[in-house]
Design goal:
9 strands; alpha/beta; 9 helices; about 260 residues; two-stranded parallel ribbon
Length: about 260
């Protein structure tokens, strides 16, 4: 049990990958801090973890709000102890449309997907630096490796996460702090539920969580999975524009917007 008796904080823990990660880490002996917008769902998950003999604390926050995010993470750390592992998982996804451009939703993706990671790191990094130990992880996406028509805002937000975490990892390499970027392909979650197209190599959130926790235990720098989707995504960068546009044409004619949170 690589994480036994450690304190882990997971953002976006109220559903999907974050929910599954929190449960998996608890099974591995972690004390788990839960952060997300929906307090009722966090309370439900914390109750489930405690009923199974684990330890959990929660604090609601929108990770797009810097002050709220820092306060929530420090709140659960105050209840559980210094944070050994941060998984900045919270994310949102919307198609990018052209006329009119949905600027507000692109702004939200940048605020949550990128700045939410930065704010979460801000909450734990000073203490990790003082202790010269800790592990920072962010859940990005294989979409960060390619610019897909109709997904320009989402792809850009995840590409920015990848670069931010790369630079942070190198900057911290002599400070005793590990940094991991987790890049899944298609995972069955509420965010992907509206998709009406075939999602190749779709995996369940519980499977994704197990793979991610395994990668974190091995202190992987970057974990792209499943390998088939990773290969396909990276190959997309070498395809001619007309072929990518044709492949995405049906998607862009009727983009699948998720329901309002």
């Amino acid at each position: 049990m690589a994480f036994a008796n450690q304190v882990a904080v997971v953002t976006g823990a109220s559903s999907g990958i974050g929910w599954a990660l929190a449960r998996e880490l608890s099974r591995q002996g972690c004390k788990v801090g839960l952060v997300a917008r929906r307090a009722d769902k966090l309370a439900e998950l914390a109750g489930e973890i405690r009923a199974a003999g684990g330890t959990a604390a929660f604090a609601p926050a929108d990770v797009g709000d810097r002050a709220a995010t820092v306060a929530a993470i420090r709140d659960v750390a105050g209840q559980l102890g210094p944070v050994d592992l941060l998984i900045a998982n919270a994310g949102v996804g919307y198609p990018t449309v052209l006329d009119p451009i949905n600027v507000e939703q692109v702004e939200q993706m940048v605020r949550v997907n990128l700045l939410g990671v930065v704010y979460s790191v801000e909450a734990v990094l000073p203490e990790m630096l003082r202790r010269r130990s800790g592990h920072l992880a962010a859940v990005s996406s294989l979409a960060g490796y390619a610019g897909l028509p109709g997904e320009s805002g989402y792809c850009a937000s995840k590409a920015a996460v990848n670069v931010y975490m790369d630079a942070l990892r190198i900057h911290l390499r002599d400070r005793g702090i590990a940094v991991t970027t987790l890049c899944p392909g298609f995972v069955r979650t509420p965010m992907t539920a509206p998709n009406q197209f075939h999602m190749p190599w779709l995996i369940e959130a519980e499977d994704a969580a197990r793979r991610m926790v395994g990668a974190l235990a091995r202190r992987r720098k970057i974990y792209n999975f499943p390998w088939q989707t990773a290969l396909l995504t990276k190959a997309t960068r070498w395809l001619p524009d007309w072929l990518v546009a044709r492949t995405m044409q049906t998607y862009n004619e009727n983009p699948p917007f998720p329901p309002a949170p």
